[in-house]
UniProtKB/TrEMBL annotation:
The gene is Nhlrc1. Residues 49-95 form the RING-type domain. This is RING-type E3 ubiquitin transferase. It comes from the Eukaryota. InterPro entries: 6-blade_b-propeller_TolB-like (IPR011042), NHL_repeat (IPR001258), TRIM-NHL_E3_ligases (IPR050952), Znf-RING_euk (IPR027370), Znf_RING (IPR001841), Znf_RING/FYVE/PHD (IPR013083), Znf_RING_CS (IPR017907). Its EC number is 2.3.2.27.
């Protein structure tokens, strides 16, 4: 079969799958169709491998995999392109060569497949919308008067970013993503100051970053799902500490005002506190603060009260898709309040799926919602549940959230691989 326009056929192996002629190849998934759910064709462009046109799945041959160039293929096509020895392969779209070890899971698509559930429902069904694309109510102007001040990154600069953090002292932003160098550091003006955290197998290399935070003493801490560790670097990229304390899957991470690190272990259902001397590279204490959580991922710490908020990812109940729950604990780990998708649905009738969380300076809990493509204020724990959209336009698939020292709100948008900074207008 002939290749579509602009997409050269792979050079080797001879029998590798080639794109069918029925559609031109699409750019890497930007997840624009996820939130909008406007057309069946747009949904297929997102959820199908662009080589074999089979629908992606969470495992096996249909699992979506990233190439270093940013294009995404299914595992089956990736194996075929690599040949029997599976050492080198060429991207069928841009011809960039790479090794099989340089490929990685496409986290945004895997997260989307998790939302859609094992039944493989359509995007409108999963997000609780009609097929006409009518979303929830987060379509109007922002009540908080937040305006987009700056947008950083974009495809090529960032590849499927997963976490963002701000250094309150210097104003620098650290972003974890799936590029060759896993951490990008941006200055307050938006320029890229540093790239570090090589992909590889050395002790301080980062295999699969899931989240990032910056301590008050200026160290970048990353949760690495690839080797189940937590790794710390200085802002020059020098690895200072790697902690492997029997974690199952360390995921969300944030830092207290005293440079202690709070992190979730998604598989173990636990919340940990790490105390370390990052300047000397010595771990002082690793303490489990809470257990029996349900797949905890995103986490944030209030810089004023020390309260901790955690996002739990709940398992499917019958025909219902997965949902999320937000829990807030005091610094002493007393439960202050919680709200789940069902409780929010009573206040605001739409499907809610929370991916990131932060505290503002007044102690309000702020979350991202990929269903309404919005940033939402849930209020203080004693006020739960309220629903106050802060940003309701211009987001595609928000997966990260943090505040800067000047109270600007930073949103990591995996949909267009960018960082968006909002301030009061």
């Amino acid at each position: 079969s002939a290749c579509p326009r602009g997409a050269p056929a792979p050079l080797s192996p001879p029998r590798a799958p080639q794109p069918a002629p029925r559609r031109s190849p699409q750019p890497p998934p930007r997840l624009l169709a996820v939130g909008m759910a406007a057309e069946d064709e747009a949904e297929l462009s997102l959820l199908e491998c662009r080589v074999c046109f089979e629908r992606y799945g969470p495992g096996g041959q249909r699992r979506p995999r990233n190439l270093p160039c940013g294009h995404v293929l299914c595992q089956g096509c990736l194996a075929a392109l690599g040949g029997a020895e599976r050492r080198r392969l060429e991207c069928p779209f841009c011809r960039r060569a790479c090794g099989s070890a340089e490929t990685s899971d496409c986290l945004p698509l895997l997260q989307l497949l998790e939302v859609l559930g094992p039944a493989g429902r359509s995007v409108p069904e999963a997000f609780g919308r009609s097929s006409s694309g009518g979303g929830g109510g987060a379509a109007g102007p922002s009540p908080a008067g937040l305006g987009l001040r700056l947008s950083l990154g974009g495809w090529g600069s960032l590849v499927n970013p997963t976490g963002v953090a701000a250094c309150r002292r210097s104003g620098r932003l650290a972003v974890a993503h799936d590029g060759k160098k896993r951490i990008h550091v941006f200055g307050p003006s938006g320029c890229c100051l540093q790239r570090f955290g090589e992909r590889g197998d050395a002790g301080n290399d980062i295999k699969y970053p899931l989240d990032v935070t910056v301590t008050s003493d200026g160290h970048v801490v990353v949760t690495d799902g690839g080797d189940h560790s937590v790794k710390a670097f200085d802002f020059e990229g020098k690895g200072v500490l790697a902690v492997r304390e029997g974690f199952c899957l360390p995921w969300g991470v944030d830092a207290t005002s005293e440079s202690q690190v709070i992190l979730t272990d998604s598989e173990a259902g636990a919340l940990y506190r790490l105390t370390a001397d990052f300047k000397t590279g010595k771990l002082k204490k690793c303490q489990m603060m809470r257990s029996q959580l349900i797949s905890p991922r995103g986490v944030a710490v209030s810089q004023t009260s020390g309260a901790i908020v955690v996002i739990e990812h709940l398992k499917a109940q019958g025909l219902n898709s997965r949902s999320t729950r937000v829990k807030v604990f005091s610094a002493e780990m007393d439960l202050l309040g919680q709200v789940d998708s069902f409780g929010l649905n009573l206040v605001f009738p739409t499907k809610i799926y929370t991916t990131a969380v932060a505290f503002d300076k007044e102690g309000h809990v702020i979350v991202t919602d990929v269903c309404s493509q919005a940033v939402i204020c849930l209020g203080k724990p004693e006020e739960f549940p309220i629903f106050n959209p802060l940003i309701s336009q211009g987001l595609l698939y928000p997966v990260g959230l943090t505040y800067m020292a000047n109270n600007s709100l930073v949103v990591l948008d995996s949909g267009d691989h960018s960082i968006k900074i909002y301030s009061s207008t």
